[in-house]
Amino acid sequence: MTKPTLILIDCTDALGLVALISNIIASHKLNIVAMREFVDEDANKFFARIVCHGDLLDQQSLEKDLQALLPSAATILVNPTQKKRLVVLVTKEHHCLADILVRDNFETLGAEVSAVIGNYQDLAPFTEKFGIPFHHISHIEKSKEDFEQEIIQQIDAYQPDYIILAKYMRILSPAFVAHFKGKIINIHHSFLPAFIGANPYKQAHTRGVKIIGATAHFVTDDLDEGPIITQDVRRVNHTFTVKDMVTAGKEVEKAVLSKALQFVIEDRVLIHGNRTIVFE
Amino acid sequence: MTKPTLILIDCTDALGLVALISNIIASHKLNIVAMREFVDEDANKFFARIVCHGDLLDQQSLEKDLQALLPSAATILVNPTQKKRLVVLVTKEHHCLADILVRDNFETLGAEVSAVIGNYQDLAPFTEKFGIPFHHISHIEKSKEDFEQEIIQQIDAYQPDYIILAKYMRILSPAFVAHFKGKIINIHHSFLPAFIGANPYKQAHTRGVKIIGATAHFVTDDLDEGPIITQDVRRVNHTFTVKDMVTAGKEVEKAVLSKALQFVIEDRVLIHGNRTIVFE
Amino acid sequence: MTKPTLILIDCTDALGLVALISNIIASHKLNIVAMREFVDEDANKFFARIVCHGDLLDQQSLEKDLQALLPSAATILVNPTQKKRLVVLVTKEHHCLADILVRDNFETLGAEVSAVIGNYQDLAPFTEKFGIPFHHISHIEKSKEDFEQEIIQQIDAYQPDYIILAKYMRILSPAFVAHFKGKIINIHHSFLPAFIGANPYKQAHTRGVKIIGATAHFVTDDLDEGPIITQDVRRVNHTFTVKDMVTAGKEVEKAVLSKALQFVIEDRVLIHGNRTIVFE
Amino acid sequence: MTKPTLILIDCTDALGLVALISNIIASHKLNIVAMREFVDEDANKFFARIVCHGDLLDQQSLEKDLQALLPSAATILVNPTQKKRLVVLVTKEHHCLADILVRDNFETLGAEVSAVIGNYQDLAPFTEKFGIPFHHISHIEKSKEDFEQEIIQQIDAYQPDYIILAKYMRILSPAFVAHFKGKIINIHHSFLPAFIGANPYKQAHTRGVKIIGATAHFVTDDLDEGPIITQDVRRVNHTFTVKDMVTAGKEVEKAVLSKALQFVIEDRVLIHGNRTIVFE
After folding, report:
1. C176-227 pLDDT, tens per residue?
2. Given pLDDT bands bounded at 50, 70 and 90, which one contains residue D200?
3. Burial level of C213, CB count in 10 A (0-12/13-18/19+)?
């Protein structure tokens, strides 16, 4: 069987859009095997994810046909045949990186890790075990601007589809974020919007919460305020010290980032203002 | 705003079905705001749930147009305007019944409870608090056939859409099940297929499981083997006696049956052989 | 078998406390069948919950023996033989109240509901179905002080062990809270500390969260800042409107308050500053 | 601060046991900071896990004092100072092994992996990246007895505390199990006791379940019937193929085995007939 054709659409809503789109798909002799569609009527926006079987003879022609009929400013993604490429940014904590590199190693990630960049060297030996390049770019004794410029150049050398902040502990400048608009994914060590900012587990312990969580989100200029992709939680109790919470938190951080990457890599996520549409 | 039009389709798959269907919908000036479609290619079956906004001027004409174009044997359900009616069967345990009657009382069930039938009288006073008729039909000193015939007659008097076994503890005969084919929903007190049959909590305790569950399913001739609608679980531990497991189990039974009813009442469930398609 | 003897202790920590306590228990011919002990070394505090089997011949003597040997300011609770009494405060929403009244009706609550007080009359008919007194005390055209004074008098007439705010939507004054110190339990419609204050589901929708939650906590002077008893969450997604979130939220609110009441009624909760020790 | 002293006790129940034990602990100048005790009255068995702070001057004397006073046949474990050693058995699937080796590499496992033994060579390169010896012992063209004898000899060379079956797909003989009684931990790819035996995900797909799970348990002679340590689940739906269920299942298998290892390594698990006491 040939690979399924995937069509992602994000455009202004209009009457008869599903008919228009499905007619074009039928005219290309593709059979729709799974379709998810969502309209936000307040925003007048249309979102769809369509999986088709059948031989796609001419991808460009399908895209052109869709583009011609859909409302202006439609974003259409047909059948991404190339594996997505990721660059991972880290500081010192290994748990999220290790999860990604193991999946990459056994080819269960669905994407390729092009490189890892760290502002400390701690994770270089581990990364290199897997044959992945590790670039150490220190922030020490540099202006933030110079430091970020070095990282941007290094990332750009790989032309990645996404930049993954896998417990990267430096705040990004608006210029950095703008350069990779919609492409940066962060794992935040709390159940946002609870405990924004530093030391969330210390805050959680002081507040005596009974559940902790983690949040994977796209990065925008507002720290910890970008569109949320997915979240999850773990129960804690009065016997947990701050250190125990950090340990439990790492498990949920790892699981949440992994789930978010799966959604993004499988083209299940569309950004809609400060929210996301996730066609699970 | 007028009520949304809901279209449920279950038919043989064919190339271009989504186009056919959405063209018909567009020709009736309806806008598709949420669509879920699923094709089982092994079984060559097509399932869809479509929510439309706009004024549906002629429901019969829409149904006729769909029927004319879809493959033979298509099941099409358009815009059920009447509230569904439920008859609830009980024995002695109150927890599932109480949940249903409270929702009915405050009109958050999305359906109407027409009557409750019990093979014991225990739950009559509670049911009658809510102004719902309670029919006591005892199984004692009757043949199973006579007993079930009495129940069938009582149920038929209400012409319900669904019969809910809310901890009804008598096994139904194939004749009874056939009479209400696809309309009987049961809550089973275990995480099927574990612990089929009687005393599942006793079995679970003996086995030393760490999680218990419950399963809501359509009833077929095979006891505990009908299509599963939804399931859920709760953690237990070594301190739980059988009685504690029963108590914890009642909470999950109640929650699972409530969820299953919501799915069925909102027309989100399609039966597909011994499985269900649930468009959550 | 006689009823188990339950001993709850909250005191300053000291070397050998478990030995002291268990010697006294043994001298009263009781067998410890389940013991949970927790020491907060930073705070130098000792907490224990001990379940004993055997005939407790002289409860007062056991209490006296414990009091004599334990550090000053010890709180000791032995074998509460009387069922706890609850007064429930409501406004207009029924879901938490209904859950409590159904459990009370079938004697699965482990406590007794003495009365319900509402600042609106909406829930009077439902409450009275269960034979529970409903007192309507309106806040309209009264000073907050007068209004609360009326409620306090009505509550005091029942001498309840706990006051349950089951979606009671008025903010309590410090004087009110002080009058019932450590006895008021609230269900907050968010996963605290996220979305403190009003309209949490509106806030949650705008923020695009993928999980919503609820929190049961003791009430202190700081609104929404008292010791958390338990929390739970439900998944939501991009298809949820604010109204859908409110509906999903009610399910989790009901479940969380029910769980918190169970913990409190079974004497599993000790307050420790702004946190709780919960011996689940 | 010195390392806490951990005391695990498993013996016949008797009146005053907690007093006896805590007196001995106090006489050694240790302060009990966390205690969990459980009595199974039907079985007349006593279980406790006690964490103490303070300088343990003479471990042997503490053990001797406890042994002298406790009922015969008591199992007492005081303060295991040596890190536990694990040998991991694998076949071809990497997900559980990788999780264990990453934790071992970053010293977050709380134990040491001494070696990995595989009946295929597939996982040798991965294992060796981490500097852990990999022994390939093929079952091909050998009697089961000879094959297992080779493995036993290899395991015995490491004198491990536990043997972890991390997706090891050969059934063990009673002789093998007897040789490592109470020391073998398996991850079973289903929510036991559902879907015992082979191809559980195929069975789960056919049955149309809405939740799948995994179970970590001690291995006894009855295949898939040993004492359960922990279990967990993941939701699935009608869109999951058998392959999707296998993929989702691997995530839960990995998480469950990891949790079980943590419990065992931290000495939180006591075997009680075919059940476990887990002092979480």
Report:
1. 999 999 999 999 987 766 777 777 888 888 889 999 999 999 999 876 789 9
2. confident
3. buried
Question: How many angstroms separate the CA atoms of B24 and A16, rounded?
Answer: 10
> What gap in Å lies between CA D155 and CA B144, rounded to an integer?
61
Q: What's the pLDDT score for residue A1? A: 54
Residue A70, both tokens: 């859909």
Show the tokens assigned to B250. Answer: 């009642």
Q: Specify the DSSP class assigned to residue D170.
A: S
Task: Assess if CATH 3.90.1150.10 describes domain D5-78.
Answer: no
Q: For position B196, what pLDDT does the model report? A: 72
> For position C1, what pLDDT does the model report?
53
Distance between CA atoms of B9 and C16, rounded to whole angstroms? 71
Cα–Cα distance between C120 and D162 in angstroms, integer? 63
Give the residue from chain A lying closest to B35, CA to CA: A37
C180 Cα distance to chain centroid: 12
Size (chain A), residues: 280
**Nearest C-alpha neighbor of C134 from the set C170, C184, C94, C169:** C94
Q: What is the 3-state secondary structure (H, E, C) of A81-143?
A: CCCEEEEEEECCCCHHHHHHHHHHHCCCCCEEEEEEEECCCCCHHHHHHCCCCEEECCCCCCC
- Going by the DSSP 8-state scheme, the letter that residue C120 receives in this structure is S
Which candidate in C12, C37, C44, C211 is best for mutational testing of the D interface (most D CBs within 10 A)?
C37
User: CB-based contact (8 Å) between C272 and chain A?
Assistant: yes
d(CA B270, CA B277) in angstroms, rounded, equals 5
Query: Which phi and psi (to 5°) does residue A148 adopt?
Result: -70, -35
Q: Do the beta carbons of residue C132 and residue C113 sit within 8 Å?
A: yes
Residue C95 pLDDT > 70, yes or no?
yes
What ipTM goes with this model? 0.92
Backbone φ, ψ for residue A91 (5° rounding): -115, -90
CB-facing half-sphere around the CA of B237: CA atoms within 13 A: 10
Alpha carbons C96 and C110: distance in angstroms, whole number: 16
Query: Which of B10, B65, B161, B224 is flagged as catalytic?
Result: B224
Which one of B105-119, C64-78, D217-231 scores highest in mean pLDDT?
Answer: B105-119
Q: D76: pLDDT confidence band, cut at 50, 70 and 90?
A: confident
B224 is catalytic: yes
Compute and round to an integer the Cα radius of gyration of chain B: 21
Q: 10 Å Cβ neighbour count for C142? A: 13
User: Per-residue pLDDT tens for A159-186?
Assistant: 999 999 999 999 999 999 999 999 999 9
The shortest CB-CB distance from B23 to any of A23, A32, A34 is to A23
| Mean pLDDT computed over every residue of chain C | 92
Fold: same for B5-78 and B84-278: no
* Domains in chain A: boundaries: 5-78, 84-278
Q: Identify all chain A residues contacting B37, using CB atoms and an 8 Å cutoff.
A: 32, 34-36
CB D268 within 8 A of CB D253: no
In this prediction the pTM is 0.94
| Partner D, chain B 212-241, Cβ-Cβ below 8 Å | 213, 227-233, 237-239
Residue ranges of chain B with per-residue pLDDT less than 70 = 1-2, 73, 81, 192-193, 223
Concatenate the DSSP letters of all residues of A13-55 into one string: --TTHHHHHHHHHHHTT-EEEEEEEEEETTTTEEEEEEEEES-
Q: How many residues does chain B have?
A: 280
Length of chain C: 280
Residues B106/C92, Cβ–Cβ less than 8 Å = no
Architecture of domain D84-278: 3-Layer(aba) Sandwich (3.40)
Residue C274's φ and ψ, nearest 5 degrees, are -95, 15
* β-pairing verdict for B84-90 and B162-165: parallel
The Cα–Cα gap between D208 and B276 comes to 7
